[in-house]
Each structure stands twice: as structure tokens, then as C-alpha cells.
Design goal:
alpha/beta, Metallo-beta-lactamase, Chain A, 8-stranded mixed sheet, 7-stranded mixed sheet, 9 helices
């Protein structure tokens, strides 16, 4: 056998790459830790939320990620990071998120946060810029409570009040539509008549805001959940960190919700789905689920309530750039009154 044949023979080739467990690497590897995936009729919710450890929840179809946790790879694909507050378990991946998007040739990331922490967020990014030795293209937008920002045409983010140990805010995503006035819709006027009316400066539409998602971040206010747009959003993501009966004081000190406070708000909620986030590792999920079911047993009005991390699964991802999770697009709907 010639030297050339020896070099090409299987025995002479480099051994197949192996991982730390000694097993041969597959083309797909699991994401660690397991991420929750919740499919709704409107969008997917993908992420991880454990109190004091990490909270990051992405809505791929809407191009946003609520908080950033340690920045699991799928989160890089969202152009907008909505940061509720600066605690490390919600913000640790901030600089990595911006740096990786820059490294992979993606558009600069945008951080939207409460105005009270905007300067500190900018300072963190500047410090990482000094460490890396290169500037990271980005935007930081600070919003006051009740202020809005247009993410894209028809998709609005609005802040709402929360109460935590540091400056904080919740985020509400709104689908803003221009609808034909009811009196004109009833007349069934032809399109050219409506266009002429609009050209003459007549107001033929009104603005309708449809609350899609309300995300509280960390908060101790049960009243948070009863605000307009929050209580009637299609999906409400609310923290509830404490479930143990004797931990009401601990919840108050850390400015987190206790199950007792959540129960006061639940009968008044109009959400299609309420997802509980930020459960602590000290509380077993199965026990918390049974405790919640027992607490809700006496309610006449019972909203659909689930634990976000009950939907955890080992996702398989391909090596390469940040396109790890591709949701199935929801069926397109049309509205005859949309203008």
C-alpha cells in the first residue's frame, strides 16, 4: 500500500470528534438548560425563568425578547430586548447579546428599558466595549411609565408600573389597528367614496389597540395585574415567586408576588392564558401546581393558569449561527374592517 493510500484509509484518518462524555458528536446538540416552549394561537413563547438564576422569554414572531437572562442562543435573533430591571438574573446576558449580534453580522440590537436604568445600562455596555477593545453598535431607549415605542408598523410596546427593589417597569405589546368607523362600516360605502372622504381630510377611522402580551418582570404589586391592557391581554406573563404559606413576609421584603396576592387578582383577570414565571428552585413545580389547583378550586371564574416552566423541553439545535428555533407560522387571518 502506498503512502497516499495509507493517508486516505479509515484507520489513518483523524478520530471522529467526541464530546466531554466520550460520545461521538451528532449534527444536533441539545440546548442547556431545557427551554420552555409555549404555543398559542397567535405566537410562541420560548425561554427560561427560575428566580435568582435566569429569566429570559422570547416571542420570535414579534421580534422581541423580555429580559435577557444569560442570553441562550435563540434569543440573539430578536432585534429588541425589553429589559424590566437590572438584576443580574434578568440582565447578565446583555453585553453578550449585543456583542454576538455584532459578531454574526446582524443589525444592532436595541435595548428598551425603564428610564431610571438607561444610564446604567449604557455604562455597562461602555465597560464591555473597553474590555473587548471594539465598539458594539447598539441602541438604548429609556421609557417613562406609560410611554410607548413603535417596534414596527402596528406593533407598539408600552411600559406599565411595577414595584420592585430597584427601578422597574412591565411591558405591554399592543397590536394597533386603524378601523373604519362603525357608522361608515354599516353604510357599506364603496372604496372610492371612502378614499375621497379621506382625501378631503375627513376622519373615517379610529384607533383600536389590541393587547397581545403583558409581561410584569419582578413585582410585588397584585394591582399590577389589574391595569388596563394587563388584565385583558391575550397572554399575561406574571411572576409569582412565593407559594409557601409562611413566606408572605419574605415576598414583601424582596418585592415579589406571593400566591395569596395572585389569588386576589385572578378572578378579575380576562386573559386567555396566564403564565406563571420566576418560581424558585426551593419550590417543587409539582407541589406548586397542586397548591395552585387547591387555591383555585373555590373560584367561580377560573382563568387558564399554567406554569411557564411546565413546558420545558430539550430542544435540538444545529451548530452555526443564531437561527436555532423556527416556529410554525400561525394561520393568516383577515379583517374586513382593517383599513
Amino acid at each position: 500500500m502506498t503512502a497516499a493510500h495509507q493517508a486516505s484509509s479509515p484507520s489513518a484518518r483523524e478520530p471522529a470528534p467526541r464530546n466531554l462524555t466520550g460520545n461521538a458528536l451528532s449534527h444536533e446538540v441539545p440546548l442547556l438548560p431545557a427551554l420552555a416552549v409555549v404555543k398559542t394561537p397567535y405566537f410562541h413563547l420560548l425561554g427560561y425563568s427560575v428566580a435568582g438564576e435566569e429569566t429570559v422569554i422570547q416571542v420570535p414572531e414579534l421580534n422581541v425578547v423580555f429580559d435577557i437572562g444569560k442570553c441562550p442562543r435563540p434569543m440573539l435573533t430578536s432585534d429588541f430586548c425589553l429589559l424590566t430591571h437590572g438584576h443580574m438574573d434578568h440582565s447578565a446576558g446583555l453585553a453578550y447579546y449585543l456583542s454576538q449580534r455584532f459578531f454574526q453580522g446582524m443589525t444592532p440590537g436595541t435595548i428598551i428599558c425603564p428610564i431610571g436604568i438607561a444610564e446604567a445600562v449604557t455604562g455597562v455596555i461602555k465597560s464591555w466595549t473597553a474590555l473587548e477593545g471594539k465598539a458594539i453598535a447598539h441602541r438604548v431607549i429609556g421609557l417613562k411609565i406609560g410611554e410607548e415605542y413603535e417596534l414596527r408598523k402596528g406593533l407598539i410596546v408600552r411600559t406599565f408600573a411595577t414595584r420592585h427593589t430597584v427601578p422597574s417597569a412591565g411591558f405591554l405589546l399592543l397590536d394597533r389597528r386603524e378601523k373604519l368607523k362603525p357608522e361608515l362600516a354599516q353604510q357599506q360605502l364603496p372604496g372610492h367614496i371612502l378614499r375621497d372622504m379621506k382625501a378631503r381630510g375627513e376622519k373615517i377611522t379610529y384607533t383600536l389597540d389590541v393587547p397581545l402580551i403583558a409581561y410584569t418582570g419582578d413585582t410585588s404589586m397584585s394591582e399590577t395585574l389589574l391595569q388596563d391592557g394587563v388584565r385583558d391581554a391575550r397572554v399575561l406573563l406574571t411572576e409569582c415567586t412565593f407559594f409557601e404559606p409562611g413566606h408572605c413576609q419574605r415576598a414583601a421584603v424582596g418585592h415579589h408576588l406571593h400566591l395569596q396576592e395572585l389569588m386576589e387578582a385572578l378572578p378579575k383577570l380576562e386573559n386567555e392564558l396566564v403564565l406563571i414565571t420566576h418560581l424558585s428552585r426551593r419550590t417543587y413545580l409539582r407541589w406548586a401546581r397542586k397548591t395552585l389547583e387547591k387555591a383555585m378550586a373555590g373560584l367561580i371564574i377560573k382563568p387558564r393558569v399554567e406554569f411557564f416552566m411546565d413546558h420545558a423541553q430539550k430542544l435540538q439545535v444545529r451548530p452555526g449561527k443564531a437561527a436555532a428555533f423556527t416556529p410554525v407560522e400561525p394561520a393568516a387571518t383577515t379583517d374586513a374592517e382593517d383599513v
